[in-house]
Amino acid sequence: xxxxxxxxxxxxxxxxxxxxxxxxxxxxxxxxxxxxxxxxxxxxxxxxxxxxxxxxxxxxxxxxxxxxxxxxxxxxxxxxxxxxxxxxxxxxxxxxxxxxxxxxxxxxxxxxxxxxxxxxxxxxxxxxxxxxx
Length: 133
What we know:
By secondary structure, this protein is mostly beta strands. It contains one helix and nine strands.
């Protein structure tokens, strides 16, 4: 890329549809167009465990949010949905979920955010799954 392209902002017309501009080194202006499938993105999983109370169906999360969440009760995964064996995110409070049924007092609920099998349709959508973005 030449000086005019760096200063004039003309580099935007050089890539092809779907490509992204990326740095190839720490040097100023050292950039190239690349296919985004070449990217290697790692997102940390965040988990929290709680013990359920007798008849508890509402769970308030302290560490995770419901976006991109996988929920396990006593080690068995329950899916997001409206059935008795499923869970739903609160429509307003992103740190609250509702279980479709209550479980035995003392049952362990494990909530894992950003797990590959989580509920996020697009793992990096917005800042909901990237706490440091």
